[in-house]
Amino acid sequence: DTAVSQTPKYLVTQMGNDKSIKCEQNLGHDTMYWYKQDSKKFLKIMFSYNNKELIINETVPNRFSPKSPDKAHLNLHINSLELGDSAVYFCASSQKTLSNEKLFFGSGTQLSVL
Amino acid sequence: QKEVEQNSGPLSVPEGAIASLNCTYSDRGSQSFFWYRQYSGKSPELIMSIYSNGDKEDGRFTAQLNKASQYVSLLIRDSQPSDSATYLCAVLNDYKLSFGAGTTVTVRA
Fold first, then answer.
1. Element housing A23 (H / E)
2. Cβ of B44 and A102 within 8 Å?
3. Which residues of chain B does A40 touch, with a Cβ-Cβ cutoff of 8 Å?
4. Terminal CA-CA length for chain B
5. What Rg, from alpha-carbon coordinates, does chain A have?
6. How far is CA A62 from the centre of its chain?
7. I need a surface site. Which of A80, B24, B61, B98 has the fewest CB within 10 A?
8. How far apart are CA B74 and CA B89, in angstroms?
9. Do B45 and A105 touch (CB under 8 A)?
10. Can you tell me the distance from the alpha carbon of B67 to that of B44, in angstroms, rounded to the nearest whole number?
11. How confident is the prediction for chain B on average, in pLDDT?
């Protein structure tokens, strides 16, 4: 069984559209994250939720809205997609609010905005 | 200044050699330090963590931490073609894990 699974793996869409990426973890972890990796491989945190509560909200356009219906799920909705949103989006989880804990990453969603 | 900076790659080493990767960080209050490996088209995976000054060895990998110099390094001994990947340095501060841009290593057979 995949520990952290996210769908879809690839997402190709037009500018201005709204899209969602889903993430689920079956590890029983308390904390989940969304990271964005640009074309230069720079991996940057966007959001973090601990037990459904938002704990990290980096400087991200408010077109990006995370939603955590329960601690096993963290979805990312993006409104009015722009060319600059093209990147790989990784979901991740850790057992507790990040201390010395290992991050488990999903396989990534390659978003291409045309 | 970026929070986490890594030496620019790509780094090409012959098989069997030592690959040396460097990382510096800006926040003196940083608590924990990690090295992640990312194969092309895959997700990052943790290979080393280090929390106190000095060396930590795990198989062919050695992480070194010097908090006074705000410096973390990773040595890969007896490099193998399977070590060809991008290595990401990550630094933890106040519940936030910040990553460097990564160093791509190519091991030549």
1. strand A19-25
2. no
3. 101
4. 37
5. 13
6. 14
7. A80
8. 9
9. yes
10. 25
11. 93
Q: Which residue of A has its CA nearest to B40?
A: A41
Q: What are A53's two structure tokens?
A: 């509560």
Residue A2 has pLDDT above 90, yes or no: no
Scanning the structure block, which residue is given the tokens 């062919």? B60
B92 touches A: beta carbon within 8 Å: yes
**Token pair belonging to B68:** 């006074």
The owner of tokens 């030592």 is B18
In which residue are the tokens 């290593």 written? Answer: B105
Model confidence over B6-57: pLDDT tens digits?
A: 987 799 999 999 999 999 999 998 989 999 999 999 999 999 999 999 999 9
pLDDT class for A102, splitting at 50, 70, 90? confident
CB count, 10 Å around CB of B45? 15
The pLDDT-based confidence of A10 (bands split at 50, 70, 90) is very high
> What's chain A's average pLDDT?
92
